[in-house]
Design brief:
Elements (H helix, E strand, L loop, with lengths): L1 H25 L13 H19 L3 H38 L3 H14 L6
Helix pairs in contact: 2-3, 3-4
């Protein structure tokens, strides 16, 4: 039993050293954020949905199906509200730039809004 603990401890040390060396030499890879409205709160909702789905996979009872559907509905509602709030902010930015006749920022914001409205939510 003691040999197994030594092997596991040695493996953890080797793994930790490799990960540390890789981070130091290569740097931390940051994921590209495709949706500017997606934040930490959305990640929490995503984790909640994953947990509900795993619970349903382990025990496909009707209760777990209902829980999963409720969580999905709540997550969808949250995402939709976040998208709408983001788009409202962009539209307000457009209005502000239009009022103060800041043409450069107006066109930049409108290009960003055009790209983001591929979300089909307004």
């Amino acid at each position: 039993m003691n040999d197994d603990e030594d092997v596991n401890r040695n493996w953890e040390n080797v793994k930790e050293n490799i990960q540390t060396s890789a981070k130091e030499s290569l740097g931390q890879h940051e994921l590209k954020q495709n949706k500017p409205w997606f934040d930490e709160e959305c990640l929490g909702f995503l984790d909640q949905m994953k947990r509900a789905k795993m619970q349903w996979i382990q025990d496909p009872s009707q209760n777990n199906v209902d829980i999963l559907n409720n969580v999905r509905r709540e997550v969808s509602r949250h995402y939709r509200d976040k998208m709408k709030a983001y788009l409202r902010g962009k539209i307000e930015e457009l209005e502000t730039n239009s009022k103060i006749q800041n043409i450069r920022d107006l066109y930049r914001a409108s290009a960003t809004l055009r790209r983001d409205t591929s979300l089909d939510v307004i």
